[in-house]
Structures are given as C-alpha cells and as structure tokens.
Design a protein that fits this description.
Blueprint (H helix, E strand, L loop, with lengths): L10 E4 L5 H12 L3 E6 L3 H13 L4 E5 L5 H15 L4 E4 L14 H29 L2 E6 L3 H4 L5 H21 L4 E6 L16 H8 L9 H12 L10 E2 L9
Parallel strand pairs: 1-2, 1-4, 2-3, 4-5, 5-6, 6-7
Length: 253
C-alpha cells in the first residue's frame, strides 16, 4: 500500500501494461490499493508475472489480452474488465509503439500502424469506458503522450503526430466530460529507460539529442508512474486537460 496516496475501492485499466511504463503504472496503482486490469498484446508471460507480483503483495490484478487499435477487441476488453473488477474508475491509455525512420522512407503502413496504436487506441478505449463513467458521474482518464508531441523530432514524424494528437484529444475530452465529473489529463514524458526506448536500441544520434537536456539522463519508468498515480488520485482533483511533463527539462512551457 502506498502510504501517501490511497486508491482503495478504485479499479483501473492500464493498456500496454505488461512491460515498461505501463507495467510500472499498473504496479504503482496496485500498491496504492487499486484493483488493476493489466492489458497486453501477445505478452502473456510478462503480464502473468506482473499479476502474480501484485497478488503476492496482497493486491488484486487480472490480465486481459487485446489489441487496443481494434474496436471489437477494445469492446471485448472493456466487457471482460467490467466482469472481472466491476466499474472502471481509472483508465490509463498507455499502449504505444515508436519507430525511428526518415520521413521519405516512411510507408503508408508505417504511418497507419503508428497512428492506430498510439492515437486511435486512446479514442477507442476512452469511448468504450466513458459511458460507465458518465453514468456514475465520476472517473479519471490519464493519457500517455510524449515530449516529442510538443517538440517534434526528425525521423519520428508518425510518432510525433500521434502524440500531438493525444495531447489535442486529451484537451477536447477534458472540456467535454468535466461537467460529468470526469478528469482527463495527460503525461508527456521525456526519454524513459524501457525496452521500447533503451540506451541500446536507439541510434547514437537519438540518444545524443535525448540526453541534451538539463538533467542529462533518461527517466526510470517508476518516475513516470508517480505522475500517473498523482493524476489518478484525488490530489489532482482540480487538474483538467493538463499535460504534465516529467521530462528532465526537455520542455519548459
């Protein structure tokens, strides 16, 4: 149990939660007392390990595999989540992919895949979860954007476009659903040490740019999860349509 923040009695769905930032968020929310649905795609072993970790610590978690870029799969995910944990109080739209590729080499397939996973999924899962939140008159949505959705970056056009779209969608949903008691905010992290974006997997040029920030380091997933916990809790009850930036100083509004 997180001593500072309690999510007892709350349920949370975290997409793309088997590894990386999503895993850290799911674990952090569970440690604060939330019942957590661990969404994943084709990562059953990692998801099962996370669920067991949460349960061994006295928490409650279930894993559900679903492609969150597919509308029918999303509806099945939400239906199974509601059956497993009851009403969903917290949604964390975390699922995402990244690709480093020059713009003129980027194919239509590359573009569609990136936008489907990183932006369309936020639309689909939010659309499936929001009716229940509206009926209850409360809820929290936390969307994972990126500092690159604000800054832009050469060789990452689809990713930057998708994450900029997440920021715009967050603000739109925040305005539309605040009257229903629903808080919608986003996190736009800087570089984070995960398997998707690791010191080993990215080009030296990419890492040189990522480390050229005031703190001159990458974050650990737990540092991003702390922001998600804050936004999921009542401590952030006056936050609406905000884009929080745990980024080491890469963006200073």
């Amino acid at each position: 149990m997180n001593a500072a923040i309690s999510l007892e009695g709350q349920t949370a769905l975290v997409t793309g939660a088997a590894t990386g930032i999503g895993r850290a968020i799911a674990l952090t929310l569970a440690q604060a007392g939330a019942r957590v649905v661990v969404n994943h795609l084709n990562q059953p072993q990692q998801a099962a390990t996370l669920v067991q970790t949460i349960r061994s610590a006295g928490g409650h978690a279930v894993a559900i595999s679903a492609d969150v870029s597919d509308g029918a799969a999303v509806q099945r995910l939400v239906d199974e989540a509601l059956h497993a944990v009851g009403d969903l109080h917290i949604l964390v739209n975390n699922a995402g992919i990244i690709q480093e590729k020059p713009f003129l080499d980027t194919t239509e397939t590359d573009w569609d895949r990136m936008l489907a996973t990183d932006l369309k999924s936020v639309f689909l899962v939010s659309r499936a979860v929001l009716p229940g939140m509206v009926a209850r008159g409360s809820g929290v949505i936390v969307n994972l954007a990126s500092d690159l959705g604000i800054l832009g970056r050469e060789n990452y056009a689809p990713y930057c476009a998708a994450k900029a779209g997440v920021i715009g969608l967050t603000k739109s949903l925040a305005r539309e659903f605040a009257p229903h008691g629903i808080r919608v905010n986003a996190i736009a992290p800087g570089p984070v040490n995960t398997a998707m974006v690791s010191l080993e997997s990215m080009s030296p040029e990419w890492m040189e740019k990522e480390l050229a920030i005031p703190q001159h380091r990458v974050a650990e997933p737990e540092e991003i999860a702390a922001t998600a916990l804050f936004l999921a809790s009542d401590l952030s009850r006056f936050y609406c349509g905000q884009i929080l930036g745990p980024n080491g100083g890469s963006v200073m509004p």
